[in-house]
Design brief:
The protein contains 11 helices and 4 strands; from the N terminus they run E-E-H-E-E-H-H-H-H-H-H-H-H-H-H. It is mostly helical. A hairpin with a 4-residue loop joins strand 3 and strand 4. Helix 3 runs parallel beside helix 6. It is globular, with a radius of gyration of 19 Å. The two termini are 23 Å apart.
């Protein structure tokens, strides 16, 4: 979106988690690994399935095999070795691993070398309003699906489930009255919401038991998802195959045999249906 793809490098991990220290029987950590598209298919950590390396981009600078390697290179051996990671090539360290911080940095800190410096997804005059929206989008929707999926009691699951759909209803109501969450201005709040909505029907409804309604049953949320997906720069980095492969092959406690549901064969085709929000909110 900012036109930084030629100056900020990108590596893409394999979607299936693996043991990051496979030769150490005492080290049970499993996480993100780097692979090359030409590498042979991999299996889940339990030895099930066969998942190709299409769409992966290895680490060309440090030769890291796992995201964990980068954390340890930066001196961090206590964390959860999460992605995304914004990496500094000169100092060989992690600048940030918090997605919203990286959003904000990329939005402003690189404008002098960006192709689209005038695109401001976190404008100063809307910053408080954006933060206010994120205060409910993140805990109840972005994180809400995880609270449903990894709940260990019925009560915890139902609490998370009810708050998730309460806030999806809230977003649906807002988007019935205006084009974006902050009115007619497209911001990082919209991207943050999109990140969960695009995964919802192909993954969360089944995997995390968020089965009250699908997103395609919400007229405004579904049109909103289609609008963002149809933005070329967003479509280019939305990999539904990677999304499904990651979730269904990386958590043996939820899906031991790493079987990936086929799902709606027309999901990608349906995302291309004209959204009409530009005409709805002229």
């Amino acid at each position: 979106l900012k036109g930084l793809d030629e100056v900020i490098g990108l590596s893409i991990v394999h979607p299936t988690w693996a043991k990051s220290r496979p030769d150490d029987p005492e080290d049970s950590h499993a996480g993100w690994r780097f692979r090359d598209p030409k590498d042979p298919p991999v299996q889940s950590r339990e030895g099930h399935g066969s998942f190709d390396c299409d769409g992966c981009i290895p680490d060309p600078h440090n030769g890291a095999k796992f995201i964990r390697d980068l954390y340890e290179l930066a001196g961090d051996t206590d964390g959860k070795y999460t992605v995304p990671v914004l990496w500094d090539l000169k100092t060989k360290t992690i600048v940030s691993n918090e997605s919203i911080e990286i959003f904000k940095m990329i939005n402003k800190e690189f404008n002098s070398i960006a192709k689209n410096p005038d695109l401001d997804l976190y404008p100063d005059d809307l910053a408080k309003d954006i933060d206010g929206v994120l205060e409910w989008v993140y805990p109840y929707i972005n994180n809400g699906v995880y609270r449903c999926g990894f709940a260990q009691t019925q009560e915890a699951y139902e609490t998370a489930f009810d708050s998730l759909f309460e806030h999806l209803d809230k977003a649906e109501d807002i988007l019935s009255k205006q084009r974006y969450l902050l009115g007619d201005k497209f911001t990082i709040a919209d991207i943050r919401l999109y990140m969960t909505l695009i995964r919802f029907d192909p993954v969360y409804v089944v995997y995390f038991k968020t089965n009250c309604k699908r997103i395609d049953e919400y007229p405004n949320l579904w049109a909103f998802v289609r609008e963002l997906y149809q933005m070329p720069d967003i479509r280019a980095v939305t990999n539904i195959k990677h999304i499904k492969t990651h979730y269904f092959t990386s958590h043996p406690n939820l899906n031991k045999f790493a079987i990936i549901p086929k799902g709606n064969p027309d999901y990608l085709k349906n995302l291309e249906v004209p959204h009409g929000r530009d005409k709805q909110f002229k």
